[in-house]
Amino acid sequence: MGGGGGGFGGGADFSDIFGDVFGDIFGGGRGRQRASRGADLRYNMDLTLEEAVRGVTKEIRIPTLEECDVCHGSGAKSGSKPQTCPTCHGAGQVQMRQGFFAVQQTCPHCQGRGTLIKTRAINATVTVA
């Protein structure tokens, strides 16, 4: 278990931050798309004082997303397909220009997925009292 970095966690990459803000000023826009970073996971674990002082290895279970049998991970209803987002044209990112500066941000229409789903697959179990 590694120690914290003085309160700065999450693995911020300063080249990414400066690239997002200043990357397009001199035509240095990004040439390739990369997946958006997922949300951080937080896990509370009880430790004894001895475990905290000496260190310990414990097993934890991390929830993972499994592919749905109905939509196969797309979220679309069986028989329908996701459509390319008309706002970002499938890129998942939009560029906002303000004078000399250009900032790239997640598409607000598709939330960075690059696709829109007209009919979502929803499975629900309702119990009768």
How would you sum up this structure, described in words?
- By secondary structure, this protein is α+β, with helices and mostly antiparallel strands.
- The chain has a domain at 66-129: Ribbon (Chaperone, DNAj Protein, Chain A).
- Helix content is 12%, strand content 12%.
- It is built from 2 helices and 4 strands.
- It has helices at residues 14-22, 49-54, and strands at 83-84, 93-98, 101-106, 115-116.
- Strands 1-4 form a two-stranded antiparallel sheet. The protein has a two-stranded antiparallel ribbon with strand order 2-3.
- A hairpin with a 2-residue loop joins strand 2 and strand 3.
- The longest helix has 9 residues, at 14-22.
- The chain is flat, with a radius of gyration of 21 Å.
- The N and C termini lie far apart (47 Å).
Secondary structural class = alpha+beta
Rg of Cα set: 21 Å
CATH top level assignment of the domain at 66-129: Mainly Beta
Largest sheet, order of strands side by side?
Answer: 1-4
Report the order of strands and helices: HHEEEE
Uncertain segments are 1-9, 26-32
Distance between the terminal alpha carbons, to the nearest Å?
47 Å
Report the CATH architecture of the domain at 66-129: Ribbon
Strand content: 5-15%
Compute the number of helices. Answer: 2
Gross morphology is flat
CATH topology of the domain at 66-129: Chaperone, DNAj Protein, Chain A
Number of strands: 4
Biggest sheet descriptor: 2 strands, antiparallel
- Let me know the average pLDDT: 71
CATH superfamily of the domain at 66-129: Heat shock protein DnaJ, cysteine-rich domain
- Classify the helix fraction into a percent range: 10-25%
Protein name: Chaperone protein DnaJ
Family: Belongs to the DnaJ family.
Keywords: Chaperone, DNA replication, Metal-binding, Repeat, Stress response, Zinc, Zinc-finger
Pfam families: DnaJ_CXXCXGXG
